[in-house]
Write a structure and sequence with these properties.
There is one protein chain. By secondary structure, the chain is an alpha/beta fold. The radius of gyration is 17 Å and the shape is globular. A 7-stranded mixed beta sheet has the order 3-4-2-5-1-6-7, with helices on both faces. It starts with 5 loop residues before the first strand and ends in a 15-residue tail after the last helix. It has a single domain, classed as Rossmann fold.
């Protein structure tokens, strides 16, 4: 059985690859499988927070307050509309973390040290990383057990993936020997495009790629503007079903029980 909780960092330094969409919808899908899940928004853009219904102006304390020692993790956790899914919100204040932690000896360990006492009772923790390889992503990789990499099948995809894997190797060697790459998630997949298939085949030749594929999907794109994961916005959409399949695949690989099915995609009561 896997350790509990299992911490995933959803990371890719390239923007626009469906990283936050993956973090939000995987977290919601794990919750739909009756796994108590915590989504941690590590991105100053705070799109993961708004994607689960957090109103940015209403956030009084966020991950920023935790990282600078002004609050404990348990004090900033908020419930979401999805049963069994909570969130640690982000704000634009996170931009200042790079400067405020620059001289701290343990700057790469801030998130790990904050998470350890605050995540008891959760089975999965999903860290949404910013699209960069700065101090926030470094903190997430240092705190995580596994990395999940969303990848859009486009021309420069492999180049960016190589840089990310090199960073993961350095973190594993110096800060987090337990860190492993869980796999690549193909996102915004357009099966009509020849290049899409060529890139997918190339990635599969070098890395573990999940069987679950996330297609380009209108409902998946619309859901964040309504502050809902896709399983609440339109659970029958191909995008929602793709992430439910991804959650099932992860749970099956871990030997965990629970089925991420549309019937279990229920709102919090």
């Amino acid at each position: 059985m896997p350790r509990s909780p299992v911490i995933f960092a959803v990371a890719n330094q390239k923007g626009g690859v469906g990283k936050t969409t993956t973090a939000v919808n995987l977290a919601a899908s794990l919750a739909a499988a009756e796994k108590r899940t915590l989504l941690v928004d590590c991105d100053p853009q705070s799109n993961a927070s708004s994607g689960v219904g957090v109103k940015r102006r209403s956030v009084e304390r966020s991950l920023y307050d935790v990282l600078i020692g002004r609050a404990k993790l348990k004090d900033v956790i908020l419930p979401t509309e999805v049963a069994l899914l909570d969130v640690v919100p982000a704000t634009q204040d996170l931009v200042a973390v790079e400067l405020e932690l620059v001289d701290a000896e343990d700057r790469a360990l801030k998130l790990k040290n904050a998470l350890l006492p605050g995540i008891k009772g959760y089975q999965y923790v999903i860290l949404d990383c910013p699209p960069s390889l700065g101090i926030l992503t470094l903190n997430a990789l240092t705190a995580a057990h596994r990395v999940l990499v969303p990848l859009q099948c486009e021309y420069f995809a492999l180049e960016g993936l190589t840089h990310l894997m090199a960073t993961i190797d350095r973190v594993r060697a110096t800060l987090n020997p337990e860190l492993s790459v869980e796999g690549i998630v193909l996102t915004m997949f357009d099966g009509r495009n020849t290049l899409t298939h060529q890139v997918a085949d190339e990635v599969k030749a070098h890395f573990h790629v999940f069987d679950a594929i996330i297609p380009r999907n209108v409902k998946l794109s619309e859901a964040p503007s309504h502050g809902k994961p896709a399983i609440l916005y339109d659970v029958q959409s191909k995008g929602a079903q793709g992430y439910l399949s991804l959650a099932r695949e992860i749970l099956e690989a871990a030997g965990a029980t629970g089925k991420a099915s549309s019937k279990q995609a229920r709102p919090r009561t």
